[in-house]
Amino acid sequence: MQWFRDAVIDEAVRGVLASASSLRPIAREAGVATAILVEGVSDQAAVETLAARRDPDLEAELIRALGADEVERAIEAEGDLRALRSLQRQPAQRGRTREQQLHRFMGSIGGRKARYASALITALGPGRIPPPLDRLMDSI
Fold first, then answer.
1. Residues 41-92: pLDDT tens digits?
2. How far is Cα 16 from Cα 117, in angstroms, rounded to an integer?
3. The whole model's pTM is what?
4. In contact, 31 and 140? CB cutoff 8 Å
5. What is the 3-state secondary structure (H, E, C) of the chain?
6. Torsions phi, psi of 66, nearest 5?
7. Neighbours of 130 (CB within 10 A)
8. Is the dihedral of CA 122, 124, 128, 132 positive or negative?
């Protein structure tokens, strides 16, 4: 993704970035379907804050779609059930729902979100894509 960012910045610096159409070849080569261009750090922060309010969280959507039992089966299949149970026994987790605990588990170690994105999508199977993700795929 850094390659894509650098290419877009190079185009902007050279003054070539006159329209979205000038980005299409770069985006296609990078495998990027959607890009949001912002003017500066404050714009980026505003877009990220708005996105966070809309709960664009992949694992949250997948946890809702699968349900806690199926997510736990996927975690067990990945060999991490003991780690999940350890997290669930922590005092800070005791008052949370299973879904909240599963969401926390996904973000507790670097790389786990990416690893479980694939495992949970596989567990979903065909025809069970959550509506927000299905709409996103339709727009690509």
1. 777 776 666 555 555 577 788 898 899 999 999 999 999 999 999 999 999 9
2. 36
3. 0.59
4. no
5. CHHHHHHHHHHHHCCCCCCHHHCHHHHHHHCCCCCCCCCCHHHHHHHHHHHHHCCCCHHHHHHHHHCHHHHHHHHHHCCCHHHHHHHHHCHHHCCCCHHHHHHHHHCCCCCHHHHHHHHHHHHHCCCCCCHHHHHHHHHC
6. -85, -35
7. 17
8. negative
